[in-house]
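Students often ask why we bother encoding 3D structure as a string. The short answer is that it lets us treat folding as translation between two languages. Here is a chain of 351 residues written in the first language.
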Amino acid sequence: MAESPASPDGMALAAVDLVKTYSQGRGKPALRALDGLTFNAEAGTVFGLLGPNGAGKSTTVKILSTLSRADSGDAFVAGIDVRRHPGRVRSVIGFVAQKQVSDPMDTGIENLVLAGQLHGMSTGAAQSRAGELLERFALTSAARRQVKTYSGGMARKLDVAIGLMHRPEVLFLDEPTTGLDPEARAEMWAEIERMSREERMTVLLTTHYLEEADRLASRLAIVDAGRVVTEGTPEQLKSGLRGDAVVIELHEASAVPEVLAAIGRLDVLRDVAVDGRTVRARAEEGGAALPVVLGVLDADGLAVASATVSRPSLDDVYLAHTGHTFASAHASSTRAARDHDTANTDLEEVA
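And here it is in the second language, the structure alphabet:
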């Protein structure tokens, strides 16, 4: 019998060389959702998985939370081997999925009490805990209303409360603020920060919002095509890029070749990349480099729509490690998902 792999010491979460493929139907190659994904997360921290749709974030969460099984590799939650002891893992985790988990026809308190009972709590204990969470999330006044009457922000807060009913050691938040308005998103961010700070709960946060990852994650893994391409604190990742980001937006994408040729005659820019009609580069001193670049472009009769200089961002980090911007990767994955859904609908209609 194969010996059980060991969990990394002191880590609340560990993924080791996870591989996961999905069948796409007859005649199509299998989709490799995870391609050797590896990371560790310390206890009591917010660990972020940042990547566009289709990067493998949700697949990772499903494996760690026992909802799916990896083709190969190892996963540990609170030191427990996910493959060998899924029941033990479920007892120590809370899981907030992308889609609403509460029953819209039940009231807020009914949803919470049921969640507690499913985790083995007595009715009295579940009601007491539900009251605590309703107060924490400012939902007490709506406790006896059907969830279908809640706003999007209220329903999302209830979903998080459901995940916290049994006081889990590890909480999985899969895209927790998608679809929320700015005010509701800010409220959710504040609650996630509070949980980590006051309760020392380990939180695995998946997100495609750069600002969300930058603000909440004490440590961050950037995921692309099923692999972790870089990892560190947000500040470490940004400071690892020397100099400033220079972004030049052109009126027409057709001018890009001429602009690249003009820039190529200079030695003030490096790591030049193109995204549509936008040219991105890095410079040691962006403030000094930009006037030089604009002067050369103007002399060559090349019009510029806008030009900016900024300190490194997580988008710059993503670009440096993947060769494409976060926005373009997210847009491409969203189009692919939409095309996939359309194809499936067409097949269903034919069938």
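Translate back mentally: The radius of gyration is 23 Å. Keep this in mind for the problem set.
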